[in-house]
Amino acid sequence: MRMRRPVSTLAWQVLICVAVLSIWQWGYGLHGSFPWLVPDLLDPYFVSKPSEIFGQFLILGCFKSKLGAFNGWFNGDFARCMARTENNLWIATAVTLKNTFFGFLAGVSSGFAAGLVLGRSDRLSAIFQPFITAVNSIPRIALAPIIVLAFGIGDMSKVVTSWIVVVFLVFFNTFEGARSIDEGFVNVARLLGASEWQITRTVVIPSTMAWVFASLSPAISFALIGVIVGEFIGAERGIGRLIIESEARAEASGMMVAVIVLMLVGVALSALIWRLQAYLLRWQQHNMVE
Q1: Are residues 132 and 276 in the same domain?
Q2: Which of 75, 109, 202, 220 yields a CA-CA distance of 20 to 30 A from 273?
Q3: Confidence band, pLDDT 50/70/90 cuts, at residue 4
């Protein structure tokens, strides 16, 4: 019974994908006969078609030339295409991933540290509360043009934009986690002679980890969003620039290639976070079983 359920789930997922791709590929052909049934959004001018998107993927990925010939690996055509195109799909994806990683890392580490300190200090929390509320009320994406203006169109502005989107998300989760710790555990640790650092390391941090990890999955998505927004405003390389360049040429297929790559990257990063969370918080699962 347990084996049938995953197989059934996978079958439904494949069926849904096939249905969506089929409607996407051929659905707009019925627009003339059934305009009330087929929305204008399926117009290939706006969303292209899966076949055209795949063809554009081969071109942007240097697997195929714009003339339609496949680039050989051994004759050097693929390498020449990679060297000739400064912002091909692979370079753009690598640059966006790199900036996302550094923005995510900076946002998580600084948000965790600030949330831990303010969560365990009533006085510091009272002092900084109005300032944190004021800054948090600003839509972070609205700061992206200012950040690009201050840091330039290089990678640093994308990292800072990603950081400012992530830091508050992690901060508030960590803050609430630090506030929700049972003071009985802290008092017992003090009675046993534990120092404040030992209490923080053995009681506070483990107790807040579940709260922190609850914010990491959305945080990695927001980090990617921050980088893309920064690349929209101004960038030398990156997937966001690929989208802007395709939009300027009115190439829906190029934009959809970049969007699909972003979707796959986001799914892969979220899966990594889930696996890391399951590994680091495996002690909670053992406690639940016991």
Answers
A1: yes
A2: 202
A3: low
